[in-house]
Amino acid sequence: MNECNILIYGDESYVKHAGVLCMSIALNATEKNNYNIYFCYTGKECDTSLAIIKRDLSKFKNISIRFIEITEHLNADIKSKSNKSYISENIYAKLYIFKQIPSKLNKILFLDSDTIALRDIYDLYNMDVSDVLLAARGESQTFVKYYGAEDKVNILGLSNMEQYFNSGVMLVNLEKWREEFVSERTIQFLVENGSDIYLHDQDGLNSIIQGNWMKLPHEWHPHPHSLNNIFTTGGLCAQLTDGDLARMKLAGLAHFLGREKPWRAGCKSPWKKEYLYYLSKTSFNQLFEDVKKIHHKENKTDLIKKVYFRMRHLNKLI
Length: 318
Fold this sequence. Notes:
Layout: E1 2-10, H1 15-27, E2 33-41, H2 47-57, E3 63-69, H3 71-81, H4 89-96, E4 107-111, E5 115-117, H5 122-125, E6 134-138, H6 141-147, H7 149-156, E7 165-173, H8 174-179, H9 182-193, H10 200-209, E8 213-215, H11 242-250, E9 253-255, H12 272-280, H13 285-317
Parallel strand pairs: 1-2, 1-4, 2-3, 6-8
Antiparallel strand pairs: 4-7, 5-9, 6-7
Helix pairs in contact: 1-2, 9-10, 12-13
């Protein structure tokens, strides 16, 4: 059996969504592989949700999940490193968790908790990263322009923004990661420079890794902005091109970036229905009902808007 090692972090705000991610991994898993999920979390408030996740996954024979509570050790380590208010527990935890997984592992797939799998992630895990620290997705030009490319290059010491990656999905070479003390050096960078950067753990990792990474195939971390013509200027779903549809069908993961989350009103992600589907397969029944109501209300609003704009267009033709 092939082994697929996955690392997830969740706090009380995201633990249920991390549970949806776990369910999506399980439902897309193939029998020839074993999937080992290392779920790091902070806060006793997570305990009830973790019990639900464990029960939901127990019916899958080739899915194992290990919960690692890091609050106590994390808080002690934070205090020993820095008293800087801008280095939050959540930021620090995403770096600290790499120190909590078994030393025997030489590779792991880190997934943000606002991600879902759309097909078997072993195909991603099986990529060769032996010559680099990690594989990830380069950031979009929209992001680069919004946050100021020149400032980032200067502060992070990059030669150009082509070297900058998104840390939400990372296939990590753990041997190199440990050899180069990536977690420790990134934390120290944040202690010294945290007040000058916006995306703390992501900026810190980019500064330390300095381009020693490779790009993931597009389908393993597609950016919604890379799909043409999804939204009209009025914010309505427009006709997808054949190219858009082809890329959406190939997508292996959906990462809900920024504030657009499928459990919040106003989300325009083309994969929010998939999130609702995987949520429906969990035992987070109240969350499912809440999100379903949001989607239903927005679908009715979109339909009304489409009819309105269609009628207005027809009136112009008359």
